[in-house]
Amino acid sequence: MEHIERESMEFDVVIVGAGPAGLSAAIKIRQLAIENNLNDLSVCVVEKGSEVGAHILSGAVLEPRAINELFPNWKEEGAPLNVPVTEDKTYFLLSDEKSQEMPHWMVPKTMHNDGNYVISLGNVVRWLGAKAEELEVSIFPGFAASEILYHEDGSVKGIQTGDMGIGKDGEPTHNFTPGYELHAKYTIFAEGCRGHLGKRLIAKFDLDKDADPQHYGIGIKELWEIDPAKHKAGTVMHGAGWPLTETGSSGGWWLYHAENNQVTLGMIVDLSYTNPHMYPFMEMQRWKTHPLIKQYLEGGKRISYGARAVVKGGFNSLPKFTFPGGSLIGDDAGFLNFAKIKGSHTAMKSGMLCGEAVFEAIAAGVEKGGDLAIARVTEGEDFFAKELTAYTEKFNSSWLKEELYNARNFGPAMHKFGTFAGGAFNFIDQNVFKVPFTLHDLQPDFSALKTVDANNVKPNYPKPDGKLTFDRLSSVFVSNTVHEENQPAHLKLTDASIPVNVNLPKWDEPAQRYCPAGVYEIMENDDGSKRFQINAANCVHCKTCDIKDPSQNITWVTPEGGGGPNYPNM
């Protein structure tokens, strides 16, 4: 395409992603601006989902520590935290029939849920979005940040939103609309796990040079409406064991009784799994057939489905989260606490800490004579500090760092020692005394996959019955996933020959199985040869392919804004 003339807009702060981290940052900045009579300080949030909350997927049990700080009177203001945890149970599934409930004293304290709430994170985020708009934050849903913009000195200048109306051939169609350039003094990236711009920033600025490799899971979730007689609002169940133990894989599951006779349930499969035949989506479907789980679902109806990668490396895998012109917050940086299986409160706190640092930097620049509501100048005197070093300082003196540091061994212990021994280690580390050393897991998840020659154990996955268990296509349907069909594929192959020539013989092309939306298929041509087919319209934006492909040949980039899932209550 020829050079495109683009309109630009200037703000003090641009935030990429209207999730718990991004909205908490925006709210904190505007709260401080109003308190300190800097009312003209401008904050813009861009969100690739069709609305705020459309792409939000989480369990979720919320620890209210961060929201208590951000909105001390959240209850009076109508935050949708309506179901306090009333019962907290942990199980180990011994087989496809048997289970063992763990005594509460044996469960690591990090997994205790006293004082927490069963929530829809999507609905909490919608509420945060409304509160942000009350504070005059500009939120642009349906606009995907597609590129990072840089000043000549290499510092981040802002972002470009994606063009609309580009055809599959890469050329503008009749309804082409160019993306906008959004310039800012500071650009905050809050894209969630494996953010495609955050990934580039980490590489460009070498932000992870002193960190362990990041680690991930794939979270697969369903929302059900169940028989009122079986519903116990506030009951929280977690567990591990079968069926993942059959393939030597690790992970865990949850089942939460929410409001309105609904239960949210799902499974997180660690993406460090080794068996190339393992099929995370079908593991989750098979898990629902266990009597402990099935008893709640029989006679009920599945309402929604979704999947999303989960960042779980913890403290040891945190990158440097500032760079000239901006910062990473939330799961874009990796702040989830895997020992608690929670990331919402940590994402919010990271956004609040960053928001404080941003406000202080802008206020200091204004004090020196700088102007509000415009981006950083590129020539002459610049009143505003380039790097938000105060964000790192605030993190280092916060409860967020203390919490993540105390949980630093949880994930590495599970990976190194397995479910039983790792669980015993974590019981001692969390409940008895803090071990005086740090475990590390230095193997990237994608490199853990064994070849079909090394591991040919094929799990037995029963055919879905359409009532309790389902296939991927019917599941994608209830995720309300929609993409513009005539657009370039947003799943990019570095080398188009690798799936058939390398991945198929070595690993039976695992993309056929690790994708929870049926995006990738190996098809047979008329002459008997194989081809790799990408059904990009099915994509639920989970990012698993970008993480687990053993050849690191797939890159996820953002499709047109507004595309993807539309999660109603997830």
UniProtKB/TrEMBL annotation:
EC number(s) on file: 1.5.5.1
Positions of the 4Fe-4S ferredoxin-type domain: 530-559
Note accompanying the cofactor annotation: Binds 1 [4Fe-4S] cluster.
Top-level taxon: Bacteria
Enzyme class, first EC level, given as a word: oxidoreductase
Keyword tags: 4Fe-4S, Electron transport, FAD, Flavoprotein, Iron, Iron-sulfur, Metal-binding, Oxidoreductase, Transport, Ubiquinone
The reaction(s) this protein catalyses: a ubiquinone + reduced [electron-transfer flavoprotein] = a ubiquinol + oxidized [electron-transfer flavoprotein] + H(+)
GO MF annotation list: 4 iron, 4 sulfur cluster binding; electron-transferring-flavoprotein dehydrogenase activity; metal ion binding
The protein's required cofactors: [4Fe-4S] cluster; FAD
Protein name: Electron transfer flavoprotein-ubiquinone oxidoreductase
